[in-house]
Specification:
It comes from Limosilactobacillus allomucosae. Keywords: Hydrolase, Signal. It holds the Pfam family Peptidase_S11. With 401 residues, the chain is of the alpha+beta class. The protein has 2 domains: 117 residues, no CATH class; 245 residues, DD-peptidase/beta-lactamase superfamily (Beta-lactamase), CATH 3.40.710.10. The protein is built from 9 helices and 21 strands. Strand 1 and strand 2 form a beta hairpin.
Length: 401
């Protein structure tokens, strides 16, 4: 391919990126292919092509690695920019990854002073039955014993304790149905519109025994899309960033009773110091999940180039460790193609004759061979259609090099 053809191809890609992402910059409109302003609400930065398996990502830069999962997504937690997606809009069972939504409700009610971290929760008989069922992930909870909200949250997030999730929900709302309503409200606040939520644990409705929802099938199981899980995770991280201080903890002792402790080892094998951690950034959360119907699922978060990313992989085949390997493949694929670029407020963004002005400073992930050339040209403009009316403002031209 000659240089002219390569530049034309790259220019077309950048136009796709801009036409899909300028709404993220605070613009009320973006410039379409014919130069006219059009409304756009979808924020996606990706190549316009996809392979036969439905993968969509940026240009083929560096070594690519496939993501072996039924659904997957990579998203910038702050901006919502999507860097990779595969079947991301389709609902799937999500197993214990739903506990990030459970935690979001608890965090929200703690901030509202409806709960407190040191508040004690007394374990009822149904919760004790769940917590001591060998079929499920748990720490032992004794009927009649009291545990703090903090210790229950820690066990829920570090070792996916199902009984702890149940105890938290009942302490917060009084019933599974009422806690579900709170979960649905937080999901709505996160931008989720198409999810099936039945319980705080991630098991089927029938697995909750006497606490199951009435008039709902015993086989009913939470179903959420990868993109909606990423939205929930981003909402949690943006509103309560300190949650990573819990989810990055490598190990901790759970106080079962005055005479007994249970040693918890974080089951996230990608946190710093764990078997599958990364050298190019730090993974500090969030949640795994596995059931027969959901397969292996993992919602991760970490910082790379000072930007927080969220990834989701759903229904990963194979053994437990493969969900982490596929997440690593996803990070490799994204970080091999994209790098963050900061665009200043008032910047004029150009591709050929197409241009628009940034209403606020933001950071976008762009193909690694994209260059932002800063120029001190005293022009500030108001974009109307394809016409820019200038006045004073430094600007940035997006050029191909």
């Amino acid at each position: 391919m000659n240089r002219h053809s390569w530049n034309k191809r790259l220019q077309s890609l950048i136009l796709v990126l801009l036409s899909l992402n300028l709404s993220l910059l605070g613009l009320s409109s973006i410039v379409s292919a014919d130069g006219e302003a059009t409304e756009e609400s979808t924020v996606v930065a990706q190549d316009s092509s996809s392979d036969s398996n439905g993968h969509q990502s940026g240009q083929n830069v560096g070594t690519s690695q496939d993501v072996d999962a039924k659904a997957a997504i990579a998203m910038d937690a702050k901006t919502g920019q999507i860097l990779y997606q595969k079947n991301a809009q389709k609902r799937y069972p999500v197993a214990s990854t739903i506990k990030i939504l459970t935690l979001a409700v608890i965090e929200k009610d703690i901030q509202a002073h409806k709960l407190s971290w040191d508040q004690k929760v007394t374990i009822s008989h149904p919760v004790a039955v769940m917590a001591n069922d060998w079929r499920f992930s748990n720490v032992p909870l004794n009927e009649g014993e009291s545990y703090t909200i903090k210790s229950l949250v820690d066990s829920m997030m570090l070792v996916s304790a199902d009984g702890s999730a149940e105890a938290l929900a009942l302490a917060d709302a009084g019933s599974v149905a009422k806690f579900n309503a709170k979960m649905q409200q937080v999901a709505k606040e996160a931008g989720v519109t198409d999810a099936k939520i039945y319980n705080m644990i991630g098991l089927s409705n029938g697995d909750l025994g006497t606490l199951r929802l009435k008039n709902v099938s015993k086989n009913a199981e939470n179903q959420i899309s990868a993109v909606d899980l990423a939205k929930i995770a981003s909402w949690l991280l943006n509103h309560y960033p300190d949650v990573v201080n819990i989810t990055k903890t490598a190990q901790e002792d759970f106080p079962v009773s005055d005479s007994q402790t249970y040693h918890m080892q974080n089951i996230n094998l990608m946190i710093k110091g764990a078997a599958l951690d990364r050298a190019d950034g730090e993974i500090d959360g969030l949640k795994t999940g596995t059931t027969d119907s959901a397969g292996n699922c993992f919602v991760s978060t970490g910082t790379f180039s000072n930007r927080r990313l969220v990834t989701v992989v759903l229904n990963v085949p194979g053994d437990f460790n493969n969900q982490f390997q596929q997440t690593n493949n996803l990070y490799n694929r994204v970080l091999g193609r994209f790098a963050p670029q900061t665009i200043k407020k008032g910047a004029l963004i150009r591709v050929g004759q197409k241009k628009a002005r940034a209403a606020k400073t933001t950071t976008l992930w762009l193909p690694k061979d994209t260059k932002l050339e800063k120029k001190t040209i005293k022009i500030k403009g108001t974009l109307k259609g394809s016409k820019l009316t200038p006045n004073d403002m430094p600007q940035v031209s997006l050029k191909l090099k």
